[in-house]
Sequence to fold (158 residues):
Amino acid sequence: MMKEWATVVSWQQGVALLRCEPKAGCGSCTARSGCGARALNELVPETEHQLQVHIDQPLEPGQRVEVGIAEGSLLRSAMLVYLSPLAGLFVMGGVFQMLFGTDLAAMCGAALGGVGGFWLAKGVSPRLAAREAWQPVILSVALAPDQLRVETLSSEAR
Fold:
C-alpha cells in the first residue's frame, strides 16, 4: 500500500476533500546535483492535488489524515497511461509501414497510434477509477488542530 499524508480541506456528508502537498523529491540521499527526480521536480511548478475520499467519521478542516492506495491499482493505472500510447505507436507504425511501405507512412501511422492509445487510456480510465479497489482510503486520522494542548510550567509557579 502506498501511503501519503494529506490535509482535510472540508468534510460534508461522509465525503472528505483532501489536499496533498507535492514533495520536492525523495530526499533520501545527498546526491542533490545529479538526481534526475529532483531536476524534474524543479521543472514542474509545484501544484497541490485535491482528492475526495469517502469516510463516515467527521473531520475538521486542517486535520491531517494518512491516505493509502493499493500498489497494484497504481501500477495498473500507470501501465494504462504509459503503455497504451506506446503500444499504439509501435503497432500502427508497423501496420502503416507494411501497408504503404514508406517511412513517412510509418511515421504518420505511429503518430495516429500514439494519439489513439492516449484516447483509449482516457476512455477506459473513468471506468477503472470507479472500481472500489482503485479508490484511495483513509488509513489513520490525526488529532484535530484544536484538540492538542500543551501545558508548560511557568517560572512563576515554581
